[in-house]
Amino acid sequence: MVVIFSHPKVREFLMKNGIVYTYRKMHPKTADGIRPQIGKDWATDRRCGKKIADVVITPVEAINNPQDIKILRKYVSKSGFRTVRDWTLAIRELNPRYTICGWVYKVIKNE
How far apart are the first and last CA of the chain? Predict the structure, then answer.
């Protein structure tokens, strides 16, 4: 599997700082379709894109309903966004018909 960083702010933050917290609307699944994607993997900027980095992915915290969006405050400083509002706007931009319920992941660039 691969983790895609299509938003430039998130991708640039990871590449510059070696770590980023990212929002995903669901646990990405491994090839077996059952277990969540965690551990060693690689990152790209788009579907079918070239590898930009090896990474280690760790699920951190669930956002179970829109009221839980305050959870993002804990991670915004390492998200690539200045504010939670900026982050949620980007989430909605990438997922226009999606209510914000999902997962925060920590992604570390593996040197």
Answer: 19
* C-alpha distance from residue 77 to each of 53, 108, 111 (Å): 21, 15, 22
pLDDT at 33 over 60: no
Query: What is the domain partition of the chain in residue ranges?
Result: 3-110
Between 26 and 62, the higher pLDDT residue: 62
106 or 103: which carries more pLDDT confidence? 106
Are the C-beta atoms of residues 97 and 49 closer than 8 Å to each other?
Answer: no
Two tokens at 100?
């914000």
| Cα–Cα distance for residue pair 72/100, rounded to 1 Å | 11
- Predicted model pTM: 0.86
Q: Quote the strand ranges of 17-95, DSSP E.
A: 19-24, 39-44, 53-63
Report the Cα 105 to chain-centroid distance in Å. Answer: 5
